[in-house]
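Batch 3, record 17
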Amino acid sequence: MVIMMATVNNPESNSLADWLNTLSHKRIRFLRLLSQIFFFVVLNGAFLGLARMPFPAPVHIPPGSPYAIVWGGFSAIQFILSSGQFPFFALGIFFISGAISGRIFCGWACPVGFWQDTLDTVGSWVRIPKWKVSRRTDEGFKEIPATIAIVAFIFSSWIGISRLKGDIVADNFITRMAWDALDPAGTLFVGWFYAIFWNVVPGDSGFFSNLGSDLNIFILNSIILVIVSILSLKVPRLYCRYLCPTGALLGYCSKSSLIAVKRNPLNCVDGCRECEKACPMDVPITEFGLEGISDTACIACGQCIDKCPEAMSFGIRI
Amino acid sequence: MKLQERLFFYTMILLGITFLLLGSALEELNILETVDKARNTNLGAWRDFLTTWVHTMNPPSTP
Ligand code: SF4
Ligand code: SF4
Ligand code: SF4
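Prediction for the assembled complex:
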């Protein structure tokens, strides 16, 4: 209990030195960082010579990412649907991985989630105060990713059916993967990468030229990216919580996942809630107990376990 | 695990396996492979090739 209180009462460290000193209290965070770096390199392994695979992974990899070796699952779903086929395999991957490991890929492997965690860490280093999103606002905003997923699903199905009927449909980014054409993660991993490393700017090379005013769209996308990035310094994992349809789909499949984070109420101090403060996804942890957290937002990141190893733990349900 | 959660879990697993088999039978991943194959054969010409790919979503006909 003494150890637990010591852990719980530690003030949140902000500077780089403090962070390094408290690494022993952030063992899972450190392991997760290693895992995120590993997956970032491997999933973008084409620059190491790894071949691309036509495999839809249960993470978000913006399509067109120059070195990505697999497909982001939700992009694959849109692409297959808009080709006139139902995405059985891609959805199957989501069902199986969600049912077994929940959203663990969000916490430990997704390159875009890694970008979000990095912004959160940078925000803490430069001591940017975090915003606490009220429960009501959070509940409202949480509907956005699922809405994006449903709209994109319907739109891609419509395009696919039109193709099957033999209608002439333009073959471009919007008709293939509508969400990804607006996605700020795509702007960062694809659009900006092209602009910075290869000097390919929309408007002068034909990049996005099928949209007419391509440069304007790129500028609009860049503005969205900058706003999302700045807000992510203040709200941890903002993109994952309020924008990502991949996370929404995975979350829905992971409500009763085999691997889950559990809270032991016997070791819990009434009214403490330090775990909830540490949670980047704002999960109401204390509403759950030994049966495991079944909130669709939980990404099994383990921040709560780092905060309170006595009461919180990874576990297997069943 | 409550009965309802257990049912949800097994439904997801069964549906997942069925969908994976159906998707394999329908050779669904070939749709993605068409794009990947074209990208793999063009490792030497990254910029132009990928630009074209992003631009039209169609692999260029000549490497
Ligand atoms: S919510 Fe989306 S972007 Fe965030 S970690 Fe999950 S898949 Fe990646
Ligand atoms: S589980 Fe959460 S509320 Fe309970 S003691 Fe640990 S940090 Fe505090
Ligand atoms: S509940 Fe724990 S494991 Fe789940 S997202 Fe929050 S901090 Fe991470």
